[in-house]
Amino acid sequence: MTPETAEQFALGYSDRSGRALLRLFEQRSFPAAQMDQAGLVGTRQDGSRYERFRNRLMFPIHNESGKIIGFGGRALASPEGTPDEPKYLNSPETPIYKKSYVLYNLHRAKEAIRKDDRVILVEGYMDAIGVTAAGFPGVVASCGTSLTTQQVQALKRHTQKIVVNFDPDAPGANAAERSINLLLEEGMQVRIVELDGGLDPDEYCKQRGAAAYQERLEGAKGYFYWLADRARARHDMRTTEGKVAVLQFLMPAVERISDRLERMTIANDVAGYLGVERGTVLDSFRKAVAERREKTLESPKVALRHDERMLLNALLAQPEMRGEVIGELKSMEAIGAFSSRRIFQAIFALDEAGGRLSFEEVHARLEESDQSLLAQAVSTRMRGHRTKKCWRPWRAYAAPGSNSGGRS
Fold first, then answer.
1. Model confidence over 302-341: pLDDT tens digits?
2. Where are the beta strands (DSSP E) in 168-285?
3. CATH number (domain holding residue 118)
4. Is residue 408 part of a domain?
5. Which of 123, 139, 160, 279 is the most core-located residue (most Cβ within 10 A)?
């Protein structure tokens, strides 16, 4: 890569000796316990200390506000010509680095993501760097770990449209398939980029150029067409059994779409794409939805925390105040841990669309289980004059230095 790109991403090198950083920490009088807690230094059984990263190309990992919270290290060749194992080594989890909440490059990419109303999701550090260097700054990486709900929610604060561009090998395709279900559950609009020649995104941009990559982005498939192609490759579509197998493979992904109208539209598209009777697809779909409803009714009732009730009632009782509050709520990780998180996501989506914020409008956007939660939250006991007293505690979620995990 160019020196400018290396500088932009603050790439570095961890010394082979495994002592340079340790000496620096000692010179700066950092206590041993703090070195261990940062995840950069380890302690052997005999009490001696060692650096976790040695002879590696180093990638700083930032949180969304741009502060370095961890590192990834790519193994380099030893004098004998063989790289150390593992190929990639990440910082362990620490008090400030929670892997399930972090996406590589999001702090740089978020403005471009908002501007383009689209995020490109790749697997690794080099893919994110290579795609950015090719002129596509709205790209983030999952850093080789499975995508999590918290990561998707972080993206959703900036856009609901995502293009998944994982490596073209079998592990990459399987990871993309797993990610689709999670993305759909969180209400994301998903498309899949396929690159020819067995090239990963970084290699493709270098070998084929930015124009070719742009063409691939514009031609990205809707997720269910991509899934259908994968399923059709495994089954004989000339037989009834093959068509049924493909349909059964696709239905769980369709069921996870949060918007009911969109679900029905895609179910029709699936029928046309597979050459299956529309009635057959809809019957299968209705049966699956009925079974899902029964499971929902059988499941134990979720108890809402008092602070969740307070926030929901405040938002719905005083919609004129949403401009003051919703922007800050979107950035608070505590919301992602709520049982009512999908209700808040529906509220955020309504706000972004400029829609009327009311019980009826929010209720119409929810699945049955979340509709029940909303009804539970907006109980008679919580309405009226008490609601105004509930308005201010949302600020406690942003209290500096709070370790309450969302409690005031």
1. 677 888 888 888 888 877 767 778 877 877 777 777 888 8
2. 189-192, 221-222
3. 3.40.1360.10
4. no
5. 139
CA distance 309 to 321: 17
Structure letter (DSSP) for residue 276: -
What pTM was estimated for this model as a whole?
0.70
d(C-alpha 53, C-alpha 17), whole Å: 10
- 3-class state of residue 322 by DSSP: helix
Q: Residue 352: inside a domain, yes or no?
A: yes
What's the CA gap between 277 and 275, in Å, rounded?
Answer: 7
288 and 183, same structural domain? Answer: no
Low-confidence ranges of the chain (pLDDT < 70): 83, 144, 256-260, 282, 285-286, 288-302, 321, 353, 379-408
Specify burial of residue 219 (Cβ count, 10 A radius: 0-12, 13-18, 19+): exposed
One DSSP character per residue, 53-69 reads: --SEEEEEEE-TTS-EE
Give the CATH number for residue 252.
Answer: 1.20.50
Of the residues 51, 70, 97, the one at which a domain ends: 97
Distance CA 328, CA 408 (A): 16
Residue range(s) defining the domain that contains residue 354: 306-398
